[in-house]
Amino acid sequence: MKYYLVGIKGAGMSALALILDDLGYKVVGYDDMKEHAFTEDKLVERGIKIYTDENDCIDENTIVVRSTAIKEYHREIEKAKKLDLKIYEYNQMLGKLANMFDLITVAGCHGKTTTTSLIAHVLGNMGGCNYLIGDGHGHASKDVRKFVIEACEYCRHFLVYEPDYAIITNIDLDHVDYFKDMQDVIDAYQEYANKAEKMVIACGDDPYTRMLDVNKPLFFYGIGEDNDIVAKNVEYTSKGTTFDVFVEENYYGHFDLPIFGKHMVLNALAVIGLCYYERFDAKEVARNIKSFNGASRRFTEEFIGSNVIVDDYAHHPQEVKMTIKAAKQKYPDKKIVAVFQPHTFSRTLEFTDELANVLNNADATYVLNIFPAREKQEDYPNVKSQNIVDKLNNGSIITDETWDLLKEYKENTVVLFMSPKEIHNIMNSYKEYLKEL
Question: Which helix (H) or strand (E) holds 45?
Answer without folding.
Answer: helix 41-46
